[in-house]
Amino acid sequence: MKLSLYTNKLLAAPVDLLAVGVFSDEPDRGIAFSQLNRALSGGLDKACRDEKFEGKLGQTVIYNVQEELSAKRICVFGYGSRADYGLQRARRFAATVAGVARKTGADSCGLTLTITEVPADPERVYSAMQGLAEGVIHGSYQFTKYKSTKESSPRLKEAKIAFSADDVRGMNGAMLRDALAKGRIIAESANTTRDLVNEPANYLFPAKLGEFAKSLAKKFDLEIKQLNPRDLEKQGMNLLLGVGGGSSKEPKLIHLVYKPEKKLSKSAPVIALVGKGLTYDSGGLSLKPTDSMVNMKNDMGGAAVVLGAMQAIAGLQPECVVHGIIPAAENMPDGNSIRPGDVIRSKAGLTVEVMNTDAEGRLVLADAIAYALEQKPTDIIDFATLTGACLVALGPSTAGAYASSESMANDIQSAWKKTGEKFWPMPLDADLKEQLKSEIADIKNLGERWGGSITAALFLQAFVGESFPRWAHFDIAGPVMHATEQLFQAKGATGFGVATCVEYILQRVRANS
Length: 513
Hints:
Layout: E1 2-6, E2 17-23, H1 31-39, H2 43-50, E3 60-64, E4 73-80, H3 87-104, E5 108-112, H4 122-139, E6 158-162, H5 173-198, H6 206-220, E7 223-227, H7 229-235, H8 238-244, E8 252-258, E9 270-275, E10 277-281, H9 290-293, H10 301-316, E11 321-331, E12 343-345, E13 351-353, H11 361-373, E14 379-384, H12 388-394, E15 399-403, H13 406-419, E16 423-425, E17 443-444, H14 452-464, E18 471-475, E19 481-482, E20 492-493, H15 498-512
Parallel strand pairs: 1-6, 2-4, 2-5, 5-6, 9-11, 9-14, 10-11, 13-17, 14-18, 15-16
Antiparallel strand pairs: 3-4, 7-8, 8-11, 12-13, 15-18, 19-20
């Protein structure tokens, strides 16, 4: 999609669809609305009154233009309160407009960059510009790769972001273009994650995930190393080998590295991102019910977040080192599958009693975390579609967030509040560790039914080590996919987690500078 800045009146933009945002606490609905309304001889205001449009968040009015303008339609969107305007509202506005464009067949749209203060606050303008870019790209997303006939509506080809040069006086064009570019990078990277999660498991298995990572490394100048089963044996990664042992598709570990060209200070962060890469999860010998297997292609959602985040980081080029580590496997039933009751020695040296082969994600993550610790990181964040218990606790739109320290918890919360992705802080309740005690091994891979998301996180913490100060675990089982169209996103994979991961890294770099 072509994104461009347009320093002229919105009504003059040569596009199919014009869009303007309106605040609920702005009686005259703003300058851009007034200009459009005058050009339409008051018709736009009448349409809004007929529809009882009050500018409440998410309200929309679609106005069909007759001959007054070159555009065919106008979309009026409710921002809600002026005080709440920022990146998230701008993103939702642009994504809604992209959805309208998709449904009406518009090839191009013009969006207003809303300015809330005079003189304009550069930081708020930057955030709004970024949000518009993110939203219009997110909202245009469709996954039609396997459609024999392309029945879906066409995607937007062009979006112009219109504003008055007087409104942003004192801000240079480079800053606005940078915000536009940042929004594009983050949204396109999240869409990469969506593509991967939407892929069927018969087309995306560990080897194919490795091929994708290799192509990503080549395109974005990342270092890459891949460990095959023989390498995994040498590394002592028996948990990963065990989980993948029942499949004809060999497991592997994928390791991407981003390093900036600039020489870094000794205090620069070294961040390890670890993503669960179960390209399909049948449950193994602890077989899932059929209904529970249907969407198990999404069990590599954590790996997809890591790959999307690595793409974004390569584009944004922060001054830090970032490792992307993915344990990739299929969990299938076979004569070579691990069994309930087996004891396996992990890379970290801890022995694990397998109570249920469907609690496999924590096993592959345990070996990957041990590998990540060898890279000497300052921070580790793991992403995983880990537990149904988290979905029960928080619903389908919110991820569970665990942190090893108060400072880490504060930093990840700062990141998700900026991006608007929905997380909820969860406790690492030490009292529940009793559930993981084994009579014959160092630890069990499953506790009781109650607190299942917490005991899964405690299992991972046993491999991170309680003394490691900056570890976070994100259980994204709920928001990795939407069963229906949601706000600005199509049904299917969401790309959830990429924006927060990237924002966390950027904030860490800023704090170190």
